[in-house]
Each structure stands twice: as C-alpha cells, then as structure tokens.
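step 4 of 6: structure.
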Amino acid sequence: MIDNSSPRSRDREAERQLILRARDGEPAALRALIDGHKDRLYAFIWRMVRHHHDAEEICQETFLKAFASLDSFSDQYRFSTWLFTIGYRVCLNSLRRKKALTGDVEFATLPIESNETPTATLESEDANRLKRSVWSAVERLSTPQRASVVLFYRHECSCHEIAEVLELPVATVKSHLHRGRARLRLLLEDAGISGEQLVRNFAG
Amino acid sequence: MHCDHARQLFDAYLDGELSAGLATELGAHRLNCEQCRHELALMEVAGHIIASDPDASAISDDFTERLLACVSPASTPWKRRVGFVLYVGVPLAAAAVVALAFLGGFDPKAQRVAGQKDIATTMMVPENGDDTPANRIGAPGTDESRRGKGAQTQRRQRIEENWEAMRQSGDSLQKNVELTILQLLELLNGAREDGTDSGGNSLSPVKPPTNPDPAKGDDLEDL
Ligand SMILES: [Zn+2]
C-alpha cells in the first residue's frame, strides 16, 4: 500500500534487507526507515488528531514501538502497513486519554466551518470553500470512519489493507467506509453543497 | 435499472469493486438520471478532494534527528539498550527492590503512601524492631554497628538515588541500571562480609570495575 514505486519484489527485498540492518541497530538503516515513512505516517496521524504537536508525538511513539519490536515484524506485511497499524493503535490510545481528560474528542462536536453555497463559477475562493467543507465533514466522522475514508482515498489503501491497519474485519471496514461516505454526503448537503451545483459548476 | 437498484451499487462503484457489466449499466443509468448523477458527482468530488488536497501541516524538519537521538544515543546500539532495559533492567530492578527489602527494611506499602521526597527516608531508615539482616550487622550499640549502619545507609541511599535517576532519565537508562546492579551486588557482598556470612564474594559473579565517576568512587573503596 501507500508506496508503489519500482517493481514490487525488488522493493520488498530492499525493504527486508533494510529491516534486517535496522534490527542490528544500524543507524543508517533506522534513519532510512524513518525518512522513508515519516511523511505519510504523519499525514495520516495528523488527519486523525488534527494537532501538529500531538501528531508528532504519536509518530515518535509509533516509530519507537516499531523499532522495539522489529523482531516480531513479519515480512508478509509491508513495513508501511505494519507501521500504520502501530500508529493507529497509538493514536486511539491518545484519543482515549484525551477523551478521559476533556470529555470529548470526536470532532463531531465542533461546529462545521462552512455552510455557504458555492457560487455559479468555481473560482478559487469557491473551490477553497468546497475543500474546507469537505475537510470539516471528514473531521466530523467517527474515528474509524475517518481512518477508513482517509486511508482509502488519501493513502490509496485497499479495504484489506485498511482492515490490517485498523485491526478489524474487512466487512467492518467496508461498513465504516460506506457509512462515512453517507455521513459526508449528509454533512455536505447540510453545509449547502449539492451534487447539482457541483455538476453545474464543474461540467459547465 | 431503477434508482433504488442504482443507489445500491454506489458504494461498490466508488470502492472500485463493481463488475464491468454492472459498472456499464450504472453508467448508462447515470446519463439518464439527474438525481443519481448529482449524488455520485458529490461523492466523487469529495473523494477527489480528500485524495489530492495538499496537507495543511507537515512533520518538523528535525523529526528524524530527534527520533534518532531517542533510539540510538551515542555509540550504544538502540536495540541493545532497549533490550537491556526491558529484559534485564526491569527484572533486576524488581530484584533490587526485593533485595533492598531484605537488607534494609524497605516497606513497599510505605513507599506507595509516602510522597516522592519521603521515599528515600522510608528506605534508608529501618523501622525500630525490624528484624532484618541489615539490622543485625554488628552488635547493637557498638561502634562497628554504627559504622556499618552508616555505610549501609549511604549505599542504600545511593542505590535509591540511582534508581530514581534511572526512572527519570531516558538518556542514561542503561548506565544507571548497570550502576545500580553493581552497587546492589557490592551491598550484598558487604552485608555478607560485615555480617555472619564469611563467604564474601561468592554472591558476585563479576568483579566490580573501577567506578568511572570519581565523585562516587570513594564509597566503593570500603566494601
Ligand atoms: Zn437514478
């Protein structure tokens, strides 16, 4: 998932070698693993917690946990999938701790940012408003819905890969993804954004 | 195809899992049905934005350096360090607590209720009437007893300080565990030499190396 550059088998072999070296504590290998995955991991975690400092702390904890248990890494997984699985678990714990402290953690309690109607021509101001509305709606999804939607669209994960990351059955992941979509549609319509306007504006 | 049927296929279509035949049928329905066209357009645009809108936040430039500083402090491979702390340090720390209880009347219940600053006191000063081996070093009231008690107390205090430092500092975790263990072994030897057991070094499998910290070195001399 997530990373699809050169031929798959060569990729996998290079990754396997890198992990073997990292297991021996070779600093260059550890650095390569961090540099190769930190941006995507952060992008995912930041979408989950929407807080720069928290997201970096979660990423750091994720890497430390991953490095401490490299021995248990099975190369039937992609390293990135395995890392995201750890990251999501750390993320859930962090959200739970916050919830215990503050009483609310779901972004559903936040007011949606934009409920203005896009105008006839989609100039950048309207496009920006549309984007803001979409992200506001994403933030109001439940945690597993948000994770499923972000992993599916943004990280191009299959439902099987999302199931590995979320440690849930594939059927449950599909349910989260589909309910997430339905909720997004309702939230966008509540924000005054309709498919009719989009078709008119985009298709002219 | 009716709208009801078409809508049932939306998710499979958006998941990219619709068969070619059904996808064609849905496409044909979409051309003719304004309602379905609009609904699918909304979801496709939302999906496109989620997929491609640039992130508003990026990881810090120094993230890798900060992380590497955590995993591999100078010259110590991270794995050895983490492994040492997890598999050696924790059981040995537990053993240290047991040994301290054995030597000096350390009361875990007292530690739990005492404030942080009281812990050392609790550990250093055996309760009156506490019949532990540490209390039986030398005869009560003799010079030897007082000297022995003073040295034991200092050693226990130093172990406690090291243990505290180890708990609070990630950087010198391994060093402190090692130091604590060495001192604990020395303390056990000292207790045996001062006390009833003349077997002396038999407890210690390793010869304690010269203490690298001169400030802490002198105390070890009298063991
Ligand atoms: Zn229709």
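step 5 of 6: annotate
 - Residues 107-122 of chain A have pLDDT under 50 and may be disordered.
 - The radius of gyration of chain A is 19 Å.
step 6 of 6: archive
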